[in-house]
Design a protein that fits this description.
The protein has 21 helices and 35 strands. With 828 residues, the protein is of the alpha+beta class. The strands form 10 sheets. It has a 5-stranded antiparallel sheet, sandwiched between helices. The chain has a 4-stranded antiparallel sheet with strand order 7-35-34-33, with no helix packed on it. A hairpin with a 5-residue loop joins strand 21 and strand 22. The protein is extended and about 155 Å long.
């Protein structure tokens, strides 16, 4: 048996044994042991965790001979035999193995008492196994209850080579180094040590540690390649937690298939249609559909690479490629000038130097000579020309210049000047707009300066106010003068009636006052005109309405025509001192002024009511609904702006004081805003809240005209310093555009109520028409393009075109000037 064991030990893999006291002095007698002891040791190692009855497990037990025979003693084997006997006596089931290795159980153990004892013994064994495994897994800190071991962690021990200690314990005390002695001392200690005891040196705590039997067992199992714990079950029984048999529930098992599963896909049909269309157009081919080509661009590049077409070796963009490469910036050397006639082998006679010139060149430095060191010479043929003696020297000097002289890259802007100017659409693409003078309106008498114009909302009639104080009513289509009213005479007679002391001779001496402003009522049902002349504002009924419009107009003017005692103004209000309403129906002398109505339906015609102010009226404007209107008297101070209501014959003064001299005022077309323009600024007031909303800074010296776009978001201002200023109320208080196209002062500006057109009239006698498209998209800025310059008025006394107004429904424009002419420009 001993020989058999020895051969097994020789065949086992070489494992380095653990240092022990009898490792060197062990003999064959110590290694040999009985077959019974071998069986007991095997049972001890396989007792609790590996009793599965499998041959594979039994084969793994045979490997215990390999590590139990490495450095073990007789005492150790006896201890293992006793442990195996104690474990086998606790079990109630006796397992026997037959010759094939299969486990058998005695039938005598099937009694109920044996079963209960087996269960209790199994519980005790499980607890013992768990306690053993827990004890093995304890850390070094748990094994040191007193806290005397070294606690320096993973600090290298060679750091303490120069000290008498090697660390500190849990109480902060130094762990003193212990002297191990020489080899002789260690040999004596091993001789004195009991046989079968294993001792290792703990370098961290500087002391010898005696290994327990349990630790020796674990170490030997790890050396042999087995699991460290003998109680570990490496092959537990498989527990089938989930069944692998699929089970079908009865839910939704009797539902019919959807109809869409039996019909062709509409999306796939669309994809096929698109691919067929692209295949027909040639954007893809069959290689793309079959998946041979992933991208058609790759196929195009491949064809270009495979093509044998000629190409340029020098494309001219070599410098650009050098500039785009990485690294220092490439600076091209300056090019040398091409050789001239003097460098020819057969130069003309005038380039050949004479003997005197050669003597003069010899006295000069090479830099001052005409051709440097080169002297022009004449040869019979090119083969007779020898090598230039200074060629290498000049080339070397040039290389030195390029190497030593600093050079700087100067970037030149290669920009086309036309690209800096925004590309505007052609004027022909922006039609319609007025282009040609078609009709000229004349009175037949000596014409006077026409200061203002206005058109009826239906575009059928035109009214003009002149320097002579006469209001003329024209028919637009025919140019016929329909009516005219001498408003200057009406004002003079009204003033004469109030001042009874003046004689008729004194009245003839007075000069007639001009009509400064005029505007037709924007409401189609209200056929009346508002005019400003001198210190008065007059309401004139035109008598041009239909039967319904005539009744509406009479109802609107009824309150004003029958007014008494200055109007419906509170006596304590500020407006009572600034304005006075006077009805003209009571003046019998004035009733005979052209009382015949133009329309067949009759109605009131002629001046109806007059509003007397303290200062001259320079501007009058209607509200879009045709009931309210505003008058401006620049010299009236706080009463410069007055708002009136025609249907109630009432007036009000909105401001207690004014900032600057007010020049113009107009209403917002949609919101309750009032635009008040001084000489330099335009202020926007909220009439309901009675606060200033915004102040527009025009940058002009003297504002002469003002108009608001139909949308209400844009304002255009004309000034006497030749500026046309466009404001976008949604952007800022500063101008969006400032245009200077005229040579002299601007007298009138305005928007077309329907078409995207804008025009400005100036003292230079011209009228500039602009295409002014305002988009509903707030992200797009307005488009302003000059399209036409209309000329037709001559300059008289430094005055040119004084007034202009657009036709309400057609892209036509009316203009009036200091020459007394009124023109109609149409889009022909």
């Amino acid at each position: 048996m001993a020989r058999k064991k020895k051969t097994q030990q020789e065949e086992a893999p070489e494992v380095e044994p653990i240092a022990s006291s009898d490792s060197d002095s062990s003999n064959e007698e110590d290694e040999e042991y009985d077959s019974e002891e071998e069986d007991g040791a095997n049972d001890a190692n396989n007792g609790d965790g590996e009793d599965h009855g499998d041959e594979s497990v039994q084969d793994s037990f045979d490997g215990s001979e390999d590590f139990e025979s490495q450095g073990s003693s007789d005492d150790d084997e006896d201890r293992l035999d006793r442990q195996a006997e104690s474990e086998t006596t606790t079990t109630t089931t006796i397992t026997k193995r037959d010759g094939k290795g299969k486990a058998k159980t005695d039938k005598a153990n099937d009694s109920p008492q044996n079963k209960e004892g087996a269960a209790a013994a199994g519980e005790a064994t499980a607890k013992e196994v768990s306690s053993l495994m827990h004890t093995d897994d304890l850390s070094s800190d748990d094994e040191d209850p007193t806290g005397t071991n070294n606690r320096i962690g993973r600090i290298p021990l060679h750091w303490y080579d120069d000290y008498e200690h090697i660390g500190y314990d849990a109480h902060g005390q130094k762990v003193i180094k212990s002297s191990q002695g020489d080899n002789l001392d260690r040999a004596l200690e091993e001789a004195d040590r009991e046989q079968g005891k294993f001792v290792v040196y703990d370098a961290l705590n500087a002391k010898n540690v005696e290994l327990t039997e349990r630790q020796i067992t674990l170490l030997r199992r790890m050396q042999s390649g087995a699991f460290a714990h003998p109680e570990h079950d490496a092959n537990p029984d498989y527990i089938d937690y989930y069944s692998g048999i699929p089970e079908i529930s009865g839910l939704n098992s009797n539902r019919y298939e959807k109809k869409s599963r039996f019909q062709p896909s509409a999306y796939e049909k669309l994809q096929v249609r698109r691919l067929l269309h692209r295949l027909k157009c040639g954007s893809i081919n069959m290689d793309f559909l079959e998946g041979k080509v992933r991208d058609m661009n790759d196929l195009v590049k491949r064809k270009e690479e495979d093509s044998d077409k000629p190409f340029l070796l020098w494309k001219g963009d070599e410098e650009d490629e050098l500039a785009l490469r990485k690294g220092p910036q490439h600076i091209a050397p300056p090019k040398q000038p091409p050789p001239g006639h003097a460098y020819s082998y057969n130069p003309p006679e005038e380039y050949l130097p004479s003997q005197e010139e050669l003597e003069e060149w010899a006295k000069l430095d090479p830099e001052d000579r005409p051709y440097g060191n080169f002297i022009p010479q004449k040869y019979d043929n090119l083969r007779s020309v020898g090598a230039y003696q200074d060629a290498v020297k000049e080339r070397f000097e040039r290389c030195l210049d390029l190497y030593l002289c600093p050079r700087v890259m100067k970037r030149r802007l290669n920009i086309d000047p036309e690209s800096l100017v925004p590309r505007l659409p052609r004027a022909s693409d922006l039609r319609p707009f007025p282009t040609t003078k078609c009709i000229e309106y004349r009175d037949g008498e000596e014409s006077s300066v026409v200061r203002c114009l206005s058109v009826s909302p239906d575009g059928q009639f035109l009214v003009s106010g002149g320097e002579d104080g006469v209001l003329r009513l024209w028919e637009v289509q025919t140019g016929r003068l329909v009516r005219k009213w001498d408003l200057a005479e009406v004002v003079e007679k009204m003033a004469a009636k109030e001042d009874d002391g003046e004689s008729e001779e004194a009245d003839t001496v007075k000069l007639k006052k001009p009509i400064t402003s005029i505007e037709w009522n924007p409401n189609r049902s209200h056929h009346c005109v508002l005019a400003g002349i001198g210190k008065c504002a007059l309401i004139i009924a035109t008598g041009t309405g239909s039967i319904d419009d005539a009744e509406v107009t009479d109802a609107l003017l009824s309150e004003a025509s029958s007014i008494k005692s200055g109007g419906n103004i509170a006596p304590e209000s500020r407006a009572a001192k600034a304005v006075k309403w006077v009805s003209l129906k009571k003046l019998n002398k004035l009733a005979s002024t052209s009382s015949i109505a133009i329309s067949a339906y009759g109605g009131t015609i002629g001046p109806v009511v007059i509003l007397q102010t303290n200062r001259d009226v320079s501007s009058v404007r209607w509200h879009r609904k045709g009931d309210y209107f505003v008058t401006v008297s620049p010299k009236a101070g706080a009463a410069a702006v007055l708002i009136h209501q025609l249907s109630k014959a009432a007036s009000q003064q909105p401001f207690g004081k004014t900032k600057g001299e007010v020049q113009l005022a107009c209403f917002h077309p949609v919101k309750p805003f009032l635009f008040v323009a001084s000489k330099e600024h335009v202020r926007v007031y909220h009439l309901v809240k009675q606060v200033m909303v915004k102040r527009l800074m025009s940058g002009c010296r003297h504002i002469s005209s003002l108009d608001v776009h139909v949308s209400g978001d844009h304002v255009v201002v004309g000034s006497l310093d030749r500026r046309l200023v466009w404001f976008d109320l949604d952007l800022a208080s500063t101008p969006y555009k400032t245009l200077k196209y005229h040579e002299r002062a601007l007298r009138s500006v305005g928007f077309h109520p329907r078409y995207p057109l804008m025009a400005s009239a100036s003292d230079d006698g011209s009228i500039h028409v602009f295409h002014s498209m305002v988009y509903s998209d707030l992200m797009r800025n307005p488009l302003i393009v000059p399209v036409k310059v209309l000329r037709g008025h001559s300059v008289v006394n430094s005055l040119g075109a004084l007034a202009m107004v657009f036709h309400p429904t057609q892209p036509w424009l009316f203009s009036a000037g200091a020459d007394g002419k009124i023109h109609l420009f149409q889009d022909l």
